[in-house]
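User: Could you check the structure of this?
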Amino acid sequence: MTLIYKIVPESLWREAQAAGVFAGAGVDIADGFIHFSTRAQVEETAARHFTGARDLLLVAVEAERLGAALRFEPSRGGDLFPHLYGALPLDAVARVDPLPLRADGRHDVDGLPA
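Assistant: Sure, the predicted structure tokens are below.
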């Protein structure tokens, strides 16, 4: 099983749970796909886009459950990032964990499953 990760404000995730599907955050909707990160990319994603943000969750998703709607495409520095073209079915979610904020304003992603 390959896990990919989505950083989501807790309030937005609660809305997705109520709706039964995650359609994406504002940036995802604007770009036409849901942005994810691999385990190797998630720390930089958190630092680049979420430094200092509180009440975040880290959603781990089983990549294989997303089928052809998931594509790995070049982004930062040519690195391949997972992009989901469509809504995220909640049954593909393996786990949801708080994303703790350290004193330096960065998030603690140590100990994540690969």
